[in-house]
Amino acid sequence: QEKWCHLSAALLGEDSEISQEQLYELLKYAALGKCHNAAQPSWCRIYHQRHLAGVVVVVLHEMSQLHFYRFYLQFRHLRKVFRHRFTLAPSANFPVSLYGEEANLKPQNTPQGLTSTSSECITKISDLQCDPIIRRYGGKKQGLTSYTLTLEEQKENDYPIEGSPGCQGYISTECDQQRTDSSPLFGLDCEMCLTAKGNEVTRVSLVDARGRCLLNELVKPQGTVLNYRTRFSGITKKMLLPVKTRLSDIQTRLKKMLPHDAVLVGHSLNSDLQALEMIHPSVIDTSLLFARNEGRRFKLKFLAKAVLGKEIQCEQKLGHDPTEDARAALELAQFFIEQGPTKVAELNLEMLLTAEKLAEVSQNKAELQPQGCGFQEQLNEPPPLPKPCFLDCLQVTGQKPLLLGRQGLDSSGLCQSNPSTSNKQILQRALEDVPLSKFSIIQFSLGPEYLASHLHAGLYEKVRSKLTDMLTIYAGPFEENFCMKSVKEEFERCGPIQSLTVVTETFQPYVCIQYEVLEAAQLAVESLNGAEVAGSCIKVQRPVTAAMLDCNVLIKELELDVENEGVIYVAGLKKSLTETDLQEEFSQLKDLETLFLPKDLQSGKHRNCCFLKFQKSQSAVDALEAINGWSMKGSELRSRNALAPGHLWRWIWQINHSNGKQGKHIFYEKMEQLSNCEQDLRKKVKKLDHHIKKLYRSLQNNTLCVVLFPGVNSTHGPQPGLGLMGIKDEEGRSAC
């Protein structure tokens, strides 16, 4: 079970609008884990992040929450797969806010007119050919014998070689058997001090291929010690006083311990062998293995952190630990052999080293900054260093981000459109490239012809009109002098009422009731149609319009929405009841996870309904049976399955309370223009949903997938976006 990642998000309620910063927080933690101060997001939690196979963000350019609910039936895959949904605060420049303000993004020409955008620091396949590691070893994986130093390379790098000047009296390990790719690896490291003879060994460590320590011995130098080099070696005069082991003892022990086909691994291993005065024919030197240009070498401490994610040679410790260093060198060689040169080159170690040095400079400047600087001194200070962008942080961990879509970014962060690129082409590239990347952003679009502001305004009016119709019911007929108070009380037991008016155009009076929540209107239709209210047997129905012909289908699909699984709606509550009262009253219900008590967003007062979320769907079914007819503080409760996911509460309330700003002639003109293209738009949306389904099915298990409708600015003001997210499990659905 622990190998599977899980996602938990308590998003039920009207406060589930997520800001760009919070979204950035989630993606950063998902991609980086605890690196670069990435912390668990404040609004959701990822369990077993280290097991995530990757992160894929699908951005539906210039689309909002409005599009999702207008074409709810067409987004069949999205609503059935993703368990977590949230309202997304719209952004003036969504891509830039997603990647981080300092992202330096440049579009590049790719086949078929695709825009493949990434930061300057992203390693491209073509760039890898220039990498010194690829130039030296090629791109394919090879066995360990391909990485051992040749005799010529040993001579060039001052390794002790039999018969060479300066190696007289050196002892051979006598490991002269031919090496194969299955020969055993051993990590070796020594600490030295300066004596009258030169560098002499004071400590020797040897580890086997599993990292187990085989030898960790202090050695008494022969010459008079001039400098113990305690800062680096950790060796002091006091430590060596009782030591009786001499260099010859260590040489003998090493000869006995090493098998005849042993391969020694170390960092600048020539220094260790010179100090040991030993000759060994087969070595892997990690300072040369991780090749750099112009003969430069990476330090072991840097490689351990950048490649293995390990901190060694910490400043808190006195001197280096040779066992730790030997193990680090061994693991670096094993990583290189197992992953191959291409994977190592993709880490872009030069860039990581530059980033580390810049961070050190920045930290040193901060430490040197005097306390209590005057205001004028602050004015003269240069601006602070920019915060690293998201893509830079990814690069520092060696990950290779991918961005595909029609919308590229120039160096100023402005979008550049490439209309000739189709969603099908983007999908095809994504199917090929996403498996090669740990972090991918894929942008799809409906096309510029469907993004005009007048079409969006028409779309808004249609959604608002349909929602209003779904929230509205007509009830009657009543007697001429019926009691309005009795009618209101009866219908209010189904949920909060926005307005109640008497219809006078009919022979007998009817009432028109507009509710604040979809569940209330549906509950009224289901429980009061055919009932006796205010002395009359009445019929309860929704308005009959062309837009409402598929209302029953929509209601059924909303009930089946994965986000509504295990969620029920309860009405008939007394407004005097607090959330604490309700928690106490409902505490006897099995597996109750969350209680959400909606509030009027203007007055802040609680409404007479609530939503209950259960850990198991069956517990929700059992609760429905128990609650219907349940009396609480003298009030009879009514309940049904939830219809509107929690994040919709605020949005429905806003639409419910909005007054159309446009004149009727403008409204009808826009509606007519929208009607002319809406059939095509439905087909486009359905195809888009199919593309996302195909991409999602191609993802590895344990991949976090986030689908974003970024939100747009329209004549009605900023329209909120929508996010759907989940971690793909082995059944192809999103794990909670």
TrEMBL record:
InterPro entries the record matches: Nucleotide-bd_a/b_plait_sf (IPR012677), RBD_domain_sf (IPR035979), REX1-like_exo (IPR034922), REXO1/3/4-like (IPR047021), Ribonucl_H (IPR013520), RNaseH-like_sf (IPR012337), RNaseH_sf (IPR036397), RRM_dom (IPR000504)
Keywords per UniProt: Exonuclease, Hydrolase, Nuclease, RNA-binding
GO molecular function: exonuclease activity; RNA binding
GO cellular component: nucleus
Residue span, RRM domain: 471-545, 566-644
UniProt feature coiled coil, ranges: none
Protein name as annotated: REXO5 exonuclease
Organism listed in the record: Aegithalos caudatus (Long-tailed tit)
